[in-house]
User: What shape does this take?
Amino acid sequence: MITPVMPTYARAPISFTRGEGPWLFDEDGQRYLDFGSGVAVNALGHAHPALVEALTEQARRLWHVSNIYRIPEQEALAERLIEETFADTVFFTNSGAEAMECAIKTARKYHSHHGSPERHRIITFEGSFHGRTLATIAAAGAEKLTDGFGPMLDGFDHVPFGDHEALNHAIGDQTAAILIEPVQGEGGVRPVPEQCLKGLRDLCDQHGILLILDEVQSGMGRTGKLFAHEWSGIEPDIMGAAKGIGGGFPLGACLATEAAAAGMLAGSHGSTYGGNPLASAVGLKVLETVLEDGFLDHVSRMSGLLRQKLEGLAASWPEVLTEVRGEGLLLGLRCKRPSAELLQAVRDERLLLIPAGDNVLRVIPPLNVQPDEIAAAMEALERACAKAAQISEERQLEEART
Assistant: This one.
């Protein structure tokens, strides 16, 4: 018999009742260290006082009016994002998938607006993840996302990650844009080298096509810059953002230059809830906090400390871990045996990590994580690796006997 909640998730048998900073508390009062941050959503941890205050204050005034009317809180957030990024305009959504839908539509509309509707195809990369809508699963193309949902929306050309020859070959007369994540999250925490991002920008300029970045997971300070592409010194034409932008409140955004958004006129796109007063008030407070003096410097210091500790862990347990990947506080541990085994071991130690593709566990603490919390996470990981190594040794002995 089907469950009341549609069974589309393989949920862990844990239920949490409250959170405080990087900690979550289950129904029995057991405390877990959350280094998954709700899949990079809880950028400032749980129940951050400034976010609680911003949400509560707005909730007392006004929740929702729809985008039929002007929303001052939304306009304030858009103006601040424009001040701090490449963008000239912002469309607000409720999620990362919606932000990427808007990005895809904006790219197609750009070429149609300029008299080239045939330029509708977008080049994407194997291992990518852009959301769960029909357009975004077609963009990613992975069978695990598309199985059973065909026929797929046409208009996406998939090339292997890092294959420059295949990328150049894929560009044709119908190409509208290239879409890429500066750091693949779901795909196994694989960063795109800065030089490659620069090359993509040059390639787009050369062929008169748009560069779309998916910074849903890598943005909002996660790598030590407000957005990860800033490390390379390039600017996209269109960018999707979400997850950390709302600090736990549903919020996404599609940012674009004035030129790229030229076709997005009144009636061309919309959202009932997107950028409502509640979401915008919280999003503005998140952005203000991340942009405070010293905040991103703290992210860089903590990411350096965490990376150093994880590299040491991988060196100590080569029978469990093969590699440390990622940028900033978006890091990944590639496992030697199935990552689910280590995931269970760390949960037993009351540490929460997030699985990803390519046999990787994501380590994504809040951006305001402290050294003592990193130390606590490493102690739990050390114990989990010891258990995983013991299980692996016992399994090998059993296999040898049989």
User: Anything to note?
Assistant: The domain at 16-34+293-401 is CATH 3.90.1150.10 (Aspartate Aminotransferase, domain 1). The longest strand covers residues 321-327. The chain has a mean pLDDT of 96. The chain has two domains: 16-34+293-401, 49-290.
